[in-house]
């Protein structure tokens, strides 16, 4: 018998693993798109390490979107984002921040190609279905804002860690 590897021996080194914050916005929840959005991240090979449904307050949303505070659409953005529940998730995997942005598509769905989440499910920038962190630094801040560390689960995923 030759030597046999185990799945756990094939994991990425932990310093290659990134995390990002993905949120299904209130329009995505209302339109029952949560399952399809989760499915795309699972199929791509990313690992879900945190998940919750919340009615977001203006306080947390103001912090989340702090860089947009001076934009003319800021107040309507807060109204939209607090209009119903959001499903907030943390996904982990190799290059997940950049890959997620590509999967989500451009901010304005009119510019997002078919095959992206926004390109497939939305038409207007003010109702673009999903949020994805735009940088590793941004992801770290957003994850800390939305999730206490104890609510993120570091579980062994034998499949996607192989790649
Ligand atoms: P992204 O969500 O792609 O990272 P931004 O950080 O620039 O984009 O904007 C945050 C969110 O603000 C967008 O996803 C969208 O919901 C909203 N938004 C951005 N630009 C506009 C706009 N011109 N009018 C209305 N809402 C906007």
TrEMBL record:
Bilayer-crossing regions: none
InterPro entries according to UniProt: NDK-like_dom, NDK-like_dom_sf, Nucleoside_diP_kinase
EC number: 2.7.4.6
Catalytic residues of the enzyme: 131 (pros-phosphohistidine intermediate)
SMART domains, alphabetized: NDK
GO molecular function terms noted in the UniProt entry: ATP binding; metal ion binding; nucleoside diphosphate kinase activity
Catalytic activity: a ribonucleoside 5'-diphosphate + ATP = a ribonucleoside 5'-triphosphate + ADP; a 2'-deoxyribonucleoside 5'-diphosphate + ATP = a 2'-deoxyribonucleoside 5'-triphosphate + ADP
Keyword terms: ATP-binding, Cell cycle, Cell projection, Cytoplasm, Kinase, Magnesium, Metal-binding, Nucleotide metabolism, Nucleotide-binding, Nucleus, Transferase
Function: Major role in the synthesis of nucleoside triphosphates other than ATP.
Recorded family membership: Belongs to the NDK family.
UniProt-recorded name of the protein: Nucleoside diphosphate kinase B
Organism this protein belongs to: Oryzias sinensis
């Amino acid at each position: 018998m030759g030597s046999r590897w185990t799945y756990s021996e094939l994991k990425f080194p932990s310093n290659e693993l990134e995390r990002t914050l993905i949120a299904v916005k209130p329009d995505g929840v209302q339109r029952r798109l949560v399952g399809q959005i989760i499915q795309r991240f699972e199929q791509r090979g990313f690992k879900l390490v945190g998940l919750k449904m919340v009615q977001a307050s203006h306080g947390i949303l103001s912090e989340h979107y702090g860089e947009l505070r001076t934009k003319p659409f800021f107040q309507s953005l807060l109204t939209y984002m607090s209009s119903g529940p959001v499903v907030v998730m943390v996904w982990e995997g190799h290059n997940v921040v950049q890959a997620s942005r590509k999967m989500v598509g451009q901010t304005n769905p009119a510019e997002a190609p078919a095959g992206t989440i926004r390109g497939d499910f939305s038409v207007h920038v003010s109702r673009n279905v999903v949020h994805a962190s735009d940088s590793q630094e941004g992801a770290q801040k957003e994850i800390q804002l939305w999730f206490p560390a104890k609510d993120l689960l570091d579980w062994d995923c034998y499949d996607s860690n192989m790649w």
